[in-house]
User: What shape does this take?
Amino acid sequence: MEEFEKNNAVEKAESAMTDSQDGKKPLEILLERETQRVEQEKKIETIREKEQKSALKKRAKAVFLQEKMKERAEMKERKAKLKAERNERHGKTQNSGGGKKKGLIAAVISLGIATVVLSSALMVTLLTPSKADGMLEQAYNRAFYDTVEQVDNIDLNLAKALSTKDESALQKYLVNVAINSELAESDLQQLPLQDQSKFYTTKLVNQIGDYAKYLNNKLINGETISEQDILALQGLYKENKTFREALHKMYNEMGEDYSFSTMIDGGDGNLIINNFNQLQNLSVEYPELIYDGPFSDGQNKREIKGLSGEDVDKMRAEEIFKKAFAKYNITDVQSVGTASGVIECFNVQGKIKDEQIFAQISKKGGKMIMFDYAGSCKDVNITRDRAVERAQEFLTSLEIKDMTPVWINLANNVYTINFAYEKDNVIVYNDLIKVRVCAETEMVIGMEARGYYTNHTERQIPSPTISEAVARQNLSQSIEIENVQMALVPIGMNTERLAYEFYGKADSNTYYIYIDAQTGKQIEMFMVIDSLGGQMLI
Assistant: This one.
């Protein structure tokens, strides 16, 4: 895609007839800018790759250490059970009699001695901090203080960026902000916080970095930073300062004896968890940014194409919730407020035994936009095909049709299946739904359909102007293609292009490559990588 854009820029420059003020031709200027942009992108990408590798190692270590702590907890339970059994036997012995009394007492004494010895050993093991505990605590400690450092750096570089008129210096500060944001996001992911506790802060640092890169590219392309750009940057600076102050407040309040490992339990009384939860409330003041980037808020201005019909009230939303989960034996169903944003929804929740199930039902048309259930999945008892079958049954029950699985991942005993709408043998990737199936119970435990209901509409699928054979000529010969299909892929926010999707392998790596069916240019390429969360595309 970059090469295609560059060629257009070159053609445009070659058609220009005037030279710039410093004597350079427009072609030379554009080539210099393109070289500068590519070099800075490579710098950011190198840091990103380094941090991704580091993050994967840290997460692997954290998972290992958490498993160790889980084993210790299970050992504690076994100890308590063993003690209870000992007491039970002791009680029975006191009430027994007869000729075998002496033998029974001897046996109980022997058992008691053995139990005391075992219990003592277990108690020492449980109360003595292990090396694994220390490593886990150090990992969380480092992640927190690294987060503080990077958020401080973001604050510093944003302040400099807002205070300079020198474009070269501004580009330097913006690149630093992008790098600091990458590092802060990586550190945040290492903290044992629930997703809902770090949603705002993770989104904040991601968008700061993405917007910094957007502004930097404007400068490289010879554009000027507008007043609206400055206002948006000031808004992000203000929000980051709030985050920074909150982190420093946590640091001052936690004291020397604070244990980061206590965050694992997710208790409401935890200092850091409480402070991060409070930060979620600041999202109403979040600056709206509209630009072409993966964390853009511009989607809030998009037309919602997949919802129609009359508005529903909260009582109707509760009825829709009950019908969707009729087989789940749900109790205590109630509406718990509303959610604004791309799609306005009612928040509805219920209980399955002692665990909560939560869903969002759209006000327009009464459609289930998402739901989540934290049901425990401890084993893998079903195949991928069975998981897909269960997920499709659930979508059908919601009257969602013509969906085909395009990506299946198994992690933590849960199948995550991405479904895309299919029409005339063409996969429509904008109309995407994610479904989660517990591999132990076959229960559908989650769904996210915001993209589907935002984009789904009747489309006129275009015809390709180049053949598959011609499209193949733009692939590397090192890739052995195993499958080809047609797909309608998103370009930016409001455009879709028909493409050939090539699936293939090279040097043990797996790739998905998208070739424009009209121009033959590469639109996108993804590589499959293994991570702690299963396989993912990058």
Summary: DSSP finds twelve helices and 13 strands in the chain. Confidence is low (pLDDT under 50) at residues 1-22, 92-132. Residues 76 and 126 are 7 Å apart (CA to CA). The two ends are 16 Å apart (CA to CA).
